[in-house]
Design goal:
Radius of gyration: 39 Å
Structural class: mainly alpha
Number of strands: 0
């Protein structure tokens, strides 16, 4: 791109245009304040670090370089997007009881409408077996509630004696 501008406006290149300083002069004037500022921020920087950084970025970027940078930015944006938080689910006795009631209603509907007794009985058995893990959770929660209530009633009785 710079080459195109050199051909179109050669007067802007190679000589110092009035009001503009040569890049080397600008770098030399501003290097020391940059080093001072960096050291105030507890960054271990010396003047050659500034010059090395500028030299590393002196070459003009190609279209391929720009495309690579754009792709990298897109990847970083995707990485920066936080994963949606999954809501925390937990069982309640009431919720499990309600689910069991729905399952029993479904079983009753199948049994009342299916003329094949063996099939409806098998379905009922399979549905009840399928939710056995939830039955265990329900029984454990119910046991914990009963124990907590018992403990609470014992502590209340001993408090008031």
């Amino acid at each position: 791109m710079k080459g195109v501008w050199k051909k179109l406006c050669p007067q802007l290149f190679g000589t110092n245009v009035e009001g503009f300083e040569e890049p080397a002069e600008i770098v030399q004037q501003n290097t020391e304040p940059i080093v001072t500022l960096a050291n105030r921020l507890d960054l271990d920087v010396i003047a050659t670090d500034i010059n090395d950084l500028l030299e590393a970025h002196k070459e003009e970027l190609t279209n391929a370089d720009l495309l690579d940078m754009e792709e990298q930015e897109e990847v970083e944006e995707v990485e920066d997007v936080p994963a949606p938080e999954t809501p925390v689910h937990f069982f309640t006795l009431k919720g499990i009881e309600e689910a069991f009631q729905h399952i029993e209603k479904a079983i009753n509907i199948f049994e009342s409408q299916d003329s094949n007794f063996e099939r409806s009985t098998k379905v009922a058995r399979d549905l009840r077996n399928a939710n056995a893990c939830y039955k265990e959770i329900y029984n454990e929660k119910e046991k914990n509630v009963l124990e907590a209530n018992h403990y609470h009633s014992l502590s209340t009785e001993s408090c008031c004696d």
